[in-house]
Design a protein that fits this description.
The complex is a heterotrimer. By secondary structure, chain A is mainly alpha-helical. Chain A is built from twelve helices and two strands. The chains are: A mainly alpha, B mainly alpha, C alpha+beta.
């Protein structure tokens, strides 16, 4: 049967109502994506002057570029470590905040604050905090010179990025997971307690399984997010350095496109990144989601 | 329940304390450093004791950097994003839910798909579109041979050029090209009793009257949630404003902050001033979070269902 | 409010409705008399709400004509048809006060504030809502919300009042009270009323005429008395009455109706297979009747309902006055008065006999 909402009759009014949003989406979503595919198959001159169809040449060039593979590898590492931390930490915090303890209420408030702070802004702050000469780890460097050098050591820079990334990822994941936990009916807790499960045990046996749908959701979103959100942090903290150690794919696309004027190469890498993100979402949806749907 | 959960509760408190410290630490550092004078900062370095130089530091940032102008840009862009989004998302959801549109399902699907592909993945070509938003029109005219016909007839080669780079509209528009709010409102409308619109029709209200008298007042909380969320999104976005505005005068505050170098270019940056800048950039959205906590939590849980 | 003069006749002429390729209502014709209270009764999914929505103009008809007061209205907007509706979940506007809810239609129609206020107060008086006008729906009880919904419907002085299962969300006691009030209200304002429900008690108590709908088709359209005493089909016979009419498959040999084992149940000239129907309260306990074993007994205070098993194994319901001879017994014998026996065609479900001797 049709939608139960009684529907108004008008041919042009709904179109007029939806038009602004559709126009914006067409112009700034579908056209750019179409163009990215188009450009990845042609050679673009940086300052206009026509394009030449070159087939898969751009892809061959990009895929043979060692720098591309390094950036891809860094993206995957960042995605796996960064997202895992940015989901697991909020999960632990949400389980804690779901209990009626003294800190639960203030924590629920404070943990949302990073939502207001741009990645680049907190990047500037963390860069200062982790400054090897005047920052919080400076005393460490006085004892063991050269131990902490985010400006020279790629691993140190990477760690710094991840700490800042997790900081910014807490609010959303925390809110979603906490909402999921709070939706678990009290009767489940009661019946599990009647079955003899301790409070600790219930966290594992009741709460975590019941928020698996939310956990799945935040993982999907966090994966996509981590691929792109790192840009602000990288640009504010490391500019891809030292020695390219923090050049993730999204930053490389930016540098290639806007600093190197290699539009075809940047478009090709964009397409690859898009396909990567889409297939990631697809895999997660079709394989994982099926296993964790509960009927309530 | 009568149950001894002391060990779990104590652990919960410890975990929450660590979490809160993790969040607060950089914010406190920012605040404290912003109150230091450059001289005392150079002497003592990292400090946890607040100083008294906050106003002086603000003055330095205010007078020697573009940040004030950029803060204004941020306010304009974020407000534009939030207001326009509230408007167009609402009307689009209204059209989808309350009208029988042909291909309505496909349309909604096309709006929904946008959430899978963030702007930061397609900024290279979005930039090209923003550099000339008439490009699709030109392509269409080309494709249908109209350009050729007009050129043969009049000798004039049609090639429209409208760039929105370095404009507020150009900074805001691509941030609006997604289905976020549409989805939120659609979900909300579907929770309303179906008889509500029937009752309105029986009372003689047409679609626009129903929208204005009934749907908008009922959606107030959703508007607030979406507004806050989109405002924060607009304020904190980085990659797009970075490429869409090429002059410091048009850049947003977050982009400006990452390039902030107040005072004399010396060996050690003027960190107290930079932290003051970070404070100035974050104070409006932070105040918003503090005041509208409820709406943000509601918005976050609603947008991603 | 002026009674009767504004009431209008509703004529449905081969009205049809289908969603896509699924027919919901095959061509349906009926005339609902001016000022009459018609109850459309049927199980859920029978198309009764769809029918109501088509009269209201909330659903377009797929084919056919609807005339209100002689005017063809099937292509008109709801507001132009002179109908008002009371919804199942009341559908009050949650952000408006009671007065604003009642007066919204008048406001949309552009009626001046002073007149609006007067008419809102008038309507509120009719349903006894006077002192609640400044409240919001959220602060009202179910019964009060119901009154607001009714006041909102009558404030426009409609020619036709439509009710979409308006009592189904109230508890049993309130429902009884509201039935009474609706009945009084109808007599007072006199608008043609169409009331959709699946509750036979509402149908029997409120209706001038009952229209019984099954899978979009009219099974019977008559007074409550006709519906109860002369069910036109097996469906109506089984749907109306609690406990339900006993339906027994029998074979007629020209003199009597017999069970498969040959036991004669009642005299009849019918020949061939048939379904015999008899209401539990019409069965008599007699000295020399049909022997039956009591399987189960429910004492309901005012009367008792017995489940008894006939010799053939068939179980039927018997409704008896309490006390009597059945209290201790586990055997009894039954008599089926011929005047109360209904016969139906087992294939078509249509009624076969014209029962004589029943008081109209």
């Amino acid at each position: 049967m049709a939608d139960t909402n009684s529907q108004f009759n008008s041919r042009w009014l709904p179109i007029a109502l939806a038009l602004p949003q559709l126009l914006l989406i067409f112009l700034f979503f579908y056209v750019p994506i179409y163009m990215a595919f188009f450009w990845s198959l042609s050679l673009e001159r940086p300052f206009g002057g026509g394009a030449e169809f070159v087939g898969l040449q751009n892809y061959a060039r990009v895929l043979n570029d060692a720098e591309f593979w390094k950036a891809t590898w860094r993206t995957v590492v960042f995605m796996l470590i960064g997202s895992s931390l940015a989901v697991i930490l909020p999960l632990i915090l949400a389980v804690a905040a779901d209990r009626r303890v003294r800190l639960a209420y203030p924590a629920r408030n404070v943990l949302v604050w990073p939502k207001a702070v741009a990645g680049a802004s907190i990047g500037v702050v963390f860069l200062f905090i982790f400054n090897p000469f005047i920052g919080i780890l400076a005393p460490l460097n006085e004892v063991y010179p050269g131990l902490w050098q985010p400006g020279l050591d790629g691993t140190d820079a990477f760690i710094m990025l991840i700490i800042a990334h997790v900081w910014g990822g807490i609010p959303f994941n925390f809110v979603i997971l906490l909402a999921g936990l709070q939706a678990v009916p009290q009767s489940f807790h009661h019946s599990a307690a009647m079955d003899g499960a301790s409070a600790w045990r219930r966290v594992r046996d009741i709460q975590i399984p019941m928020v698996l749908p939310q956990l799945f959701l935040v993982f999907v979103l966090e994966f996509t997010e981590s691929v792109t959100a790192a840009f602000g942090l990288i640009d504010a903290m490391t500019q891809g350095g030292p020695g390219g150690a923090t050049t993730l794919l999204v930053y490389k696309i930016y540098v290639d496109g806007f600093k190197g004027y290699d539009l075809s190469g940047a478009a090709t890498q964009s397409v690859i990144l898009m396909v990567f993100v889409l297939s990631l979402a697809a895999v997660q949806f079709f394989i994982l989601e099926r296993k964790i749907r509960y009927e309530r | 329940m009568i149950e001894n959960t002391k060990s779990l509760d104590r652990t919960a408190n410890v975990i929450l304390a660590v979490g809160v410290l993790y969040i607060l630490f950089p914010l406190v550092i920012t605040l404290v450093t912003a109150t230091q004078s450059f001289e005392s900062f150079l002497q003592n370095g990292f400090s946890f004791i607040p100083g008294t130089y906050l106003l002086e530091n603000i003055q330095i940032v205010w007078e020697t950097t573009q940040l004030p102008r950029q803060l204004l840009n941020s306010i304009i862009v974020a407000t534009m994003v939030a207001l326009i989004k509230c408007g167009i998302a609402f009307t689009t959801a209204f059209a989808i839910v309350y009208f029988r549109i042909r291909y309505g399902g496909i349309l909604f699907g096309m709006v929904l798909v946008t959430n899978l592909m963030p702007l930061d993945l397609r900024f290279i070509t979005t930039y090209q579109v923003a550099a000339n938003i008439m490009m699709p029109v030109n392509a269409l005219l080309d494709f249908f041979g109209i350009t050729y016909i007009v050129q043969t007839l009049t000798g004039y080669r049609m090639n429209f050029q409208v760039s929105v780079l370095n404009t507020y509209f150009g900074l805001a528009a691509p941030l609006l090209a997604n289905g976020t709010g549409t989805f939120l409102f659609r979900q909300y409308f579907r929770t309303l009793p179906a008889d509500l619109s029937k009752a309105a029709r029986m009372d003689g209200a047409g679609p626009m009257r129903f929208l204005w008298d009934i749907l908008i007042p009922l959606s107030r909380a959703n508007f607030a949630a979406l507004f806050v969320l989109m405002f924060l999104g607009g304020w904190t976005s980085y990659l797009w404003p970075l490429v869409a505005a090429s002059t410091p005068e048009m850049q947003t505050a977050v982009v400006g902050l990452a390039r902030l170098s107040p005072g004399d270019p010396g060996q050690i940056p003027h960190y107290p001033a930079i932290m003051t800048g970070a404070l100035m950039v974050s104070v409006i959205p932070l105040a918003m979070i503090a005041l509208m906590q409820r709406h943000i939590v509601r918005g976050l849980t609603l947008t991603e269902k | 409010m002026q009674p009767a003069s504004i009431a209008a006749e509703i004529a449905l002429d081969a009205v049809e409705k289908s969603f896509g390729n699924t027919p919901v209502i095959p061509p349906l014709s009926a005339t609902l008399g001016a000022g009459e209270f018609t109850v459309v009764l049927g199980p859920s999914g029978c198309g009764k709400s769809t029918l109501l929505n088509m009269i209201a103009g909330l659903e377009p008809v797929s084919a056919g004509r609807i005339r209100i007061d002689g005017q063809e209205v099937q292509d008109w907007e709801p507001k132009d048809r002179g109908c008002a509706m009371v919804f199942q979940n009341y559908a009050l506007y949650p952000h408006m006060t009671v007065a604003e809810n009642i007066g919204y239609a008048l406001k949309v129609a552009g009626i001046a504030r002073a007149e609006r206020q007067q008419r809102v107060e008038g309507a509120a008086r009719v349903v006894q809502l006077g002192d609640l006008l400044d409240r919001r729906p959220g602060q009202l009880s179910g019964g009060q919300r119901q009154r607001v919904a009714i006041a909102r419907a009558i404030v426009r002085e409609p020619r036709v009042l439509l009710f979409d299962e308006p009592l189904s969300n109230l508890d049993a006691k309130l429902r009884h009270g509201m039935r009474m009030e609706l009945s009084h209200l109808h007599r007072r304002i006199g608008a043609t009323s169409v009331f959709v429900t699946h509750d036979q008690v509402e149908a029997m108590t409120l209706a001038d005429k009952v229209l019984i709908l099954n899978e979009g088709r009219i099974e019977q359209f008559g007074t409550p008395h006709e519906i109860y005493h002369f069910p036109a089909s097996l469906f109506v016979a089984g749907f109306i009455g609690a406990p339900a009419m006993n339906l027994i498959e029998v074979e007629g040999d020209g003199t009597a109706l017999r069970l498969p084992d040959g036991t004669a149940l009642a005299g009849s000239a019918h020949r061939g297979r048939a379904v015999l129907g008899i209401r539990p309260e019409k069965l008599r306990i007699a000295e020399d009747g049909l022997p039956a074993t009591i399987v189960y007994r429910e004492d309901l205070g005012s009367h008792a309902v017995l489940v008894v098993r006939l010799g053939s194994g068939q179980e039927i319901n018997v409704s008896t006055p309490l006390g009597g001879d059945t209290v201790a017994a586990d055997q009894l014998s039954l008599h089926l008065p011929e005047a109360h026996v209904h016969l139906f065609d087992p294939a078509s479900g249509q009624r076969l006999n014209v029962t004589q001797g029943q008081v109209r």
